[in-house]
Amino acid sequence: MAKSKRPFMLTKEFWQTDSVARKIAQAKHQLAGEQLDRRLAELEITDVDKLKVENLKIDKKYGKVSDVEFDKQSATLKGEPYVGVLKTHFNPQEPKNGFFELDWNDKFIEDLMTSGYTGEKDEEVINKWFNDLCRNIMLEDMDEDVVDALKENIKENKKELGDGKVEYS
Predict the structure, then answer these.
(1) How far is Cα 45 from Cα 52, in angstroms, rounded to an integer?
(2) What is the DSSP letter of 6?
(3) Considering 55, 74, 93, which residue would you say is the last residue of a domain?
């Protein structure tokens, strides 16, 4: 998308001696929007990994990735663990039977496995971690005597729902 009808060769920026500055000026003269953002990133960022992150930011800016997908891909590109809640399902008739839909990257699974969580599938590792997390949250608010008494009686019922989803009650 052209920004100016005047040829770039007739601008003072064309005659700059620095070729990178000239290319940046030419991009600003001839391009706009997403094309300009991508070209500037390409010209200004020399580190390949940083360029990937910047292109991901541009994808987000122009609505090509959601906020959740941006967070996940950004963490993955940076080599960081990621886990996020995609949806929270709530049934007003049975509030205690709601559930969370989670998403994660491979680094998060690696970190959980390093911390001692195991499973044949990623979903099993996540379920064990999430159960521990929920259990710890519940136990934080309880009196120690009650917790000790309950620990002996806690029984977990697990129901496979398919597509890697599990319901616990």
Answers:
(1) 10
(2) S
(3) 74
Residue 3's pLDDT band, with cuts at 50, 70 and 90, is low
- Alpha-carbon distance of 30 to 100, in angstroms, equals 47
DSSP string of 57-107? HHHHHTTSS-HHHHHHHHHHHTT---EEEEEEE--TTSGGG-EEEEEE-HH
2 inside domain: no
State which amino acid sits at residue 135: R
The span from the CA of 101 to the CA of 106, in Å, is 17
Question: What predicted TM-score, i.e. pTM, was given to this entire model?
Answer: 0.68
Residue 10 CA to residue 117 CA, distance in Å, equals 65
Q: Which domain holds residue 42?
A: 8-74
When comparing pLDDT for 113 and 141, which is higher?
113
Q: Are 70 and 88 in a shared domain?
A: no
> Are 103 and 162 in the same domain?
yes
